[in-house]
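Action item from last meeting closed. Structure (467 res):
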């Protein structure tokens, strides 16, 4: 019996009671299983065990008895995400392939449910950082492993992620996940006080660049260029990103084999590339499906179905249909224009909120961590939007988790800025001076309190002054 399988089963079994009594730890364990998929690194009986379901059941059961949960945070983003989830349910009722659509709705609902679960338990800076470290470690493992393997083998073969039936099993999906995590590695390393962990995060950042390149994913390559370019716009990041760009150039033009250069060359000469033309075909099918069903689309699996392709392409020569090859055309074809609009509103609202958080947090020294997190999340979401334009990852769980992390960062900044002001303003006058007091830092609030007390004492008659 494989030792690795036994060790994993013992570890998960030991964590189940902890997940029940400490719900926030249960969320962390679920994130670890969802992104790293450690059971896919085994070769025996543990490879097919439903560990994620066990952890999810223990965590949700403990949610009923948990005493450390806080109120749900209602923001534009949470409302839009709930509305998008509800629209998925509506389009499933009218789906072209109801049975397949119901199965996919169940899977997506699990992703969204566990994405919402951190809200009442991670309204704390320390826990939020641990959550991001778990995400970074889970996906960074494949970045480190793939980069080291490339240096050993010369990059002749593609870097792949976890085993089959996982979110990062293919080269395109792994490139997307690593591009989204590059900003997380970078900004967590900048704030990490422990030297060993800081060096490990920087190693994940640089080595994952190698992994993205040698996934042979053209969308991943374009996304990598965008991520490094956006990070470079912050002048404080220039030395590290310049080193990363130098590494990129050395690998791309001095180390990469000929077939990698030929693969990347098809980005410019896409007319002769069969894979690129297949993407255009998939996009046209998705668009025509949306034109025939503009409100509800074709439902889940409405595009990735052979019958759909042969309905719109009478001379379709293959026995298997490709997927939508784009988050935008996937949402458009499967959920119509309302689904695409809701998703776009969610993305734009999140980016706008993160920009506001960054501007507000930079004015206060004690909130510089929040400004860094806002910058980090913006780049991660941009990486998702750019790389995902060529990959069918409209329901990628990491993206929805980062939307919720953005909500939590915004909530923590609001609490930090509103707390001191709320204590200083009397109930009768709170409405009149609410907005100015929101911008008062804790240090200025303390100074304001002292100066106010001194002014009151000077206004008292001499015989009533306190000696």
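Sequence:
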């Amino acid at each position: 019996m494989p030792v690795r399988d036994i060790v994993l089963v013992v570890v998960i079994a030991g964590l189940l009671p902890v997940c029940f009594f400490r719900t926030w730890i249960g969320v962390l364990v679920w994130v670890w299983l969802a992104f790293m998929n450690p059971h896919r690194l085994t070769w025996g009986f543990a490879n097919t065990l439903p560990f994620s379901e066990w952890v999810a059941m223990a965590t949700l059961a403990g949610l009923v008895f948990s005493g450390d949960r806080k109120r749900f945070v209602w923001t534009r983003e949470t409302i839009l995400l709930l509305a998008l989830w509800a629209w998925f349910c509506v389009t499933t009722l009218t789906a072209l392939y109801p049975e397949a659509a119901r199965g996919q709705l169940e899977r997506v609902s699990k992703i969204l449910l566990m994405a919402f679960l951190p809200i009442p338990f991670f309204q704390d800076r320390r826990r939020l950082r641990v959550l991001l470290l778990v995400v970074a470690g889970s996906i960074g493992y494949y970045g480190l492993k793939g980069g080291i393997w490339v240096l050993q083998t010369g990059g002749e073969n593609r870097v792949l992620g976890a085993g089959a039936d996982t979110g990062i099993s293919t080269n395109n999906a792994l490139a997307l996940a690593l591009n989204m995590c590059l900003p997380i590695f970078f900004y967590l390393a900048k704030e990490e006080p422990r030297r060993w962990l800081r060096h490990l995060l920087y190693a994940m950042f640089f080595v994952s660049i190698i992994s993205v390149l040698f996934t042979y994913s053209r969308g991943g390559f374009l996304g990598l260029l965008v991520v490094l370019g956006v990070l470079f716009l912050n002048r404080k990041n220039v030395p590290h990103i310049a080193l990363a760009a130098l590494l990129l150039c050395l690998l791309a033009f001095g180390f990469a084999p000929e077939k990698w250069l030929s693969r990347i060359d098809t980005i410019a000469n896409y007319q002769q590339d069969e894979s690129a033309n297949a993407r255009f075909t998939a996009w046209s099918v998705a668009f025509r499906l949306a034109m025939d069903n503009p409100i509800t689309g074709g439902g889940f699996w409405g595009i990735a179905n052979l019958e759909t392709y042969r309905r719109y392409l009478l001379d379709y020569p293959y026995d298997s249909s490709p997927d939508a090859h784009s988050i935008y055309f996937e949402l458009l074809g499967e959920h119509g224009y309302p689904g695409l609009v809701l998703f776009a509103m969610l993305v734009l609202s999140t980016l706008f909120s993160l920009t506001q958080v960054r501007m507000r947090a930079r004015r206060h020294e004690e909130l510089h961590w929040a400004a860094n997190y806002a910058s980090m999340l913006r780049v991660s979401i941009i990486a998702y939007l750019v790389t995902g334009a060529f990959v069918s990852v409209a329901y990628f769980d990491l993206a929805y988790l980062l939307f919720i992390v953005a909500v939590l960062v915004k909530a923590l900044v609001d609490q930090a800025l509103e707390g001191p002001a709320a204590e200083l303003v009397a109930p009768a006058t709170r409405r009149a001076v609410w907005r100015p007091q929101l911008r008062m830092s804790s240090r200025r609030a303390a100074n304001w309190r002292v100066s106010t007390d001194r002014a009151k004492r000077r206004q008292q008659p001499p015989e009533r002054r306190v000696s």
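Note appended to the action item: The first helix runs from residue 3 to 21.
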